[in-house]
Design brief:
A alpha/beta (237); B mainly alpha (288); C mainly alpha (346); B: two-stranded antiparallel ribbon; 2 strands; C: 346 residues; mainly alpha; two-stranded antiparallel ribbon
């Protein structure tokens, strides 16, 4: 059985600087994985290579059975990849429902889109504001709308870039529940800073440093690792 | 041999005139991210300013080198205060408003000067090169362009004003960070850009039969040269004007002028398709 | 989501439009009305791609002129008008498709889009102006340079070349075409395709992350706009009975943009209202010579950008539903159709 996501020697250089440097990464089906690391470690660049927003300089990406290196974002998305970007990327001028419907329509076709829209709105508890224009919502609500967009397409691989950023602790708790439930349906990669949040979802963690994978393992083990503490404190181990 | 010389002069002249008509637009676009679609009409005003003052008995050199830039610079100031300032940061709205302005200016010129051709004869006579006649005034245009480029470069490189300008071109909030009022910087920029445009209009006036519609012929070429050149002011317009000028002259000689014009436009399309950031977006990144 | 009210709204609008179009000959001559209706179709073509697709085309006149020239050339060669009409729509559609593909697959940003469309229009304008002489002919049709092509067969009843359509009947055809185009555009916008188009205007990156190919969809939308503009060109050719390079002029492009701006972007009624009001104003002004027409057109454009950025339709809509509109404006949200990615700096 193929893994949900795999990279081999993935490299992305910007003007001679390797932001991602020969990363080998494997994610099992239904696996939940967090990517952490200090600023500039290459997490977000790695993430953007996966989604097709950046074209890697070298190396190879495999999603399910397809090799997707250098694919455009829409082609990657059609494989059943749901993406939440770092800054909430939603259609501000449209209603919540329309935002979600657009995603459901892509994933399910016109006939089933309505049911999928309702389900996603229900799941993210957006029923009360379904008719509101997204541009007028709070940051937390917009984050939830974006998650509903991801969920509505019924993805098999979910990529979330800092989903907990800017949320209240109450919202973070709810987010952890939702992610827990999603993890039973799909493989998930989360780029995150918030260690408390990562502990809550009890994930396996991959630590990035200077464009490479430093260490991988359960969150508690990783946090005890001296090298990880060193990179977070700015010492070069 | 004579023919080669004549062709060489023609090509250099065509590159120089492209640079000349684009310089003002490039200054305004580079500094303010404003595309002034009334650019051609600013040139047209410069042309009329020159012709009217020359016909009124003023020295023709003073008319084109002093009166035209000042007149258009002042027009630019008024326009900046009344229209552009209101629309900062709204690129498309600015384009639309200045397009409207260009129509207003064409209309005004038609009412004032009528739909007839105005002109003055070139103040420099031609000379013979072997069997061919060379237009001496074209060489003067080349010289003006070279002086213009050299002084723009010197101002940007060696003066405080130039430093502020270069900073602003890199980052819009730079002027404020250096302690300059952005409002003043923009006003000064628009004046300078307009004055350069007026100079171009004045210098080229003896070469064209001026009608109120003359501007629309310039604006497209200036616009294309600036956009194709990309973000770097001097290197940008020089490189794109060179490519576009050489191509259009090559086709003009090989076939006929209209093909040259079309070739220029097609080349610009191809360049934009290949280099969507303009030439200097891709190469010469650090140039001024 | 709500197909039924959508449909009812469309039918109501069509009925109201049909009534207005039917009553209009009571107050003005059908000859004038015909050209106003043609302008309305042309305005609709830009209103669709700009207001709903966020694609600012400075060269809508290119497709208009291309439609008119295609019709004229085909009508001279073929005689019967049915096929020329279809060609007059198909050729601009295909051309817009090709041009759109080049631009959107090249990921040109807004300003560059404006430049490219403007340049293409200029190429047509200069080329057509230079086509005097027998060397420039398509079949039996001479392109005629600056003087254009006069004297081609006008619209006839399909299959009957002798039954020409003019005056009142031609007005009816134009009115029918406007209603048809309006209905089609409403339908298109209500369909998933139209909703995705609006989504792309709102946030192209998100639409792509959802799995929609924005490049292809924008190309198709652009081509539809080109086809509609081509239809307007065909009708104009039959109305004027001559086509000239002026159809490709920048002033023509500017006029279309002015109609949309003054009428109001992001609506379908707006561009139509703008075209009719300004077209009629131009007709009235054409009868005086105190103030230059170009000056007035330009002044209207400047003033409406400065003072009425949402257009007539925006003003009316604001009056209609004052409270929510004001709340939205208070948030300082820029108009969606105008939101820009600024060109990257080196």
């Amino acid at each position: 059985m193929p893994s949900a996501l795999e990279t081999r020697g993935l490299t992305m250089t910007f003007g001679g600087v390797a932001a991602v440097d020969g990363v080998d990464f494997t994610l099992g089906r239904r696996e939940l994985r967090c990517l952490i690391g200090p600023n500039g470690a290459g997490k977000s660049t790695f993430f953007k290579c996966l989604t097709g927003q950046l074209r890697p300089t070298a190396g190879e990406i495999r999603i399910g059975e397809e090799e997707t290196t250098g694919w455009d974002p829409h082609a990657v998305a059609r494989l059943g990849v749901g993406v939440k970007t770092q800054v909430p990327s939603v259609m501000d001028g449209l209603s919540v429902r329309e935002n979600v419907w657009l995603s459901a329509h892509r994933g399910h076709g016109t006939a089933a889109a309505r049911a999928a829209t309702d389900a996603a709105i229900e799941r993210l508890a957006l029923g009360d504001i379904a008719r509101a224009t997204v541009g007028r919502l709070s940051h937390g609500e917009r984050q939830r709308v974006e998650l509903a967009i991801v969920v509505a397409a019924a993805p098999t691989l979910i990529l979330l870039d800092e989903p907990a950023a800017g949320l209240t602790s109450e919202e973070v708790g709810r987010l952890a529940e939702i992610i827990g439930a999603l993890a039973r349906e799909a493989a998930i990669v989360i780029v995150e800073h918030d260690m408390q949040f990562i502990r809550t979802i009890a994930s396996v963690v991959t630590v990035f440093s200077q464009g490479r994978i430093l260490v991988e393992g359960p969150v508690e083990d990783v946090m005890r690792d001296r090298r990880v503490r060193d990179v977070y404190l700015g010492r070069k181990g | 041999m004579d023919l080669a010389g004549v062709i060489a002069i023609e090509v250099v002249y065509s590159v120089a005139s492209l640079i000349l008509i684009s310089a003002g637009l490039a200054v305004i676009f580079g500094m303010m991210r404003v595309i002034n679609l009334a650019h051609g009409e600013f040139m047209m005003i410069g042309g009329y300013a020159t012709i009217v003052s020359a016909n009124a008995g003023m020295n023709v050199w003073v008319a084109m080198l002093v009166v035209a830039p000042l007149t258009v610079g002042l027009v630019g100031l008024v326009v900046e205060r009344l229209v552009i300032r209101v629309l900062y940061g709204r690129l498309v709205d600015t384009m639309l408003a200045t397009w409207g302005l260009s129509l207003v200016l064409v209309g005004l010129a038609t009412m004032v000067f009528g739909n007839t051709t105005a002109g003055i004869s070139p103040p420099i006579s031609g000379f013979a090169m072997g069997a061919y006649q060379v237009n001496g005034y074209n060489l003067f245009v080349v010289v003006v362009t070279l002086v213009l480029l050299a002084s723009m470069w010197a101002v940007l490189r060696f003066t405080r004003l130039g430093l502020v300008a270069r900073g602003t071109m890199q980052r819009a909030d730079m002027a404020a960070a250096l302690g300059y009022d952005p409002d003043r910087v923009y006003m000064a920029t628009f004046f300078a850009g307009s004055a350069l445009t007026g100079l171009a209009g004045g210098v080229l006036a003896p070469l064209v039969g001026l009608v109120p519609m003359t501007g629309s012929g310039y604006v497209a070429e200036a616009f294309i040269t600036v956009i194709t050149g990309g973000a770097s002011l001097i290197v940008g317009i020089v490189s794109s004007a060179t490519i576009l000028g050489v191509v259009s002259q090559a086709f003009t000689f090989a076939t006929r002028p209209v093909v040259g014009e079309v070739a220029l436009l097609v080349t610009a399309l191809v360049l934009l398709r290949l280099l969507p950031q303009g030439i200097t977006g891709r190469f010469f990144r650090r140039a001024t | 989501m709500s197909a039924r009210p959508q449909l009812r709204g469309t039918l109501l609008a069509l009925a109201a439009g049909a009534a207005v179009l039917a009553l209009a000959p009571l107050v003005a001559e059908t000859y004038t009305l015909s050209v106003l209706v043609i302008y309305a179709i042309l305005a609709l073509s830009l209103g669709l791609i700009w207001g709903f697709g966020g694609i600012l085309c400075f060269g809508q006149a290119a497709f208009y002129g291309l439609g008119a020239y295609t019709y004229a050339v085909a009508a001279i060669n073929i005689g019967e008008s049915t096929l020329p009409v279809l060609l007059g729509i198909a050729v601009p559609f295909a051309f817009a498709f090709a041009l759109g593909a080049v631009m959107f697959y090249g990921r040109l940003s807004d300003v560059y889009l404006g430049v490219v469309t403007l340049v293409v229009t200029l190429i047509f304008f200069r080329f057509m102006n230079a086509t005097a002489g027998p060397a420039f002919a398509v079949g039996e049709a001479r392109l005629g340079g600056f003087n254009g092509i006069p004297g081609f067969p006008i619209l006839n009843v399909p299959g009957h070349p002798r039954w020409e359509i003019y005056d009142g009947a031609f007005y009816a055809v134009c009115a029918g075409a406007l209603l048809l185009v309006y209905g089609l555009v409403r339908w298109l916008l209500a369909s998933p395709f139209g909703r995705v188009a609006v989504a792309i205007r709102e946030n192209e990156g998100r639409a792509e992350l959802m799995g929609y190919d924005a490049r292809l969809r924008k190309t198709v939308l652009f081509a539809v706009g080109g086809g509609i503009a081509g239809l307007a060109g065909v009708l104009y050719a039959c109305w004027a009975e001559i086509v000239t390079p002026g159809l490709f002029s920048l002033a023509q492009s500017a006029e279309i943009i002015v109609w949309c701006i003054v009428g109001g972007l992001g609506t379908l009624a707006g561009p139509i209202i703008g075209a009719v009001v300004l077209g009629y104003a131009k007709f009235l002004l054409g009868q005086q010579s105190v103030i230059d027409n170009t000056l007035i057109l330009g002044a209207i454009l400047v003033l409406s950008v400065l003072l009425m950025p949402r257009g007539i339709a925006g003003v009316l809509a604001a009056a209609w539903a004052r409270a929510p509109r004001r709340a939205r404006r208070a948030r300082g949200r820029p108009r969606a159709a105008h939101r820009l990615r600024s060109p990257d700096r080196a």
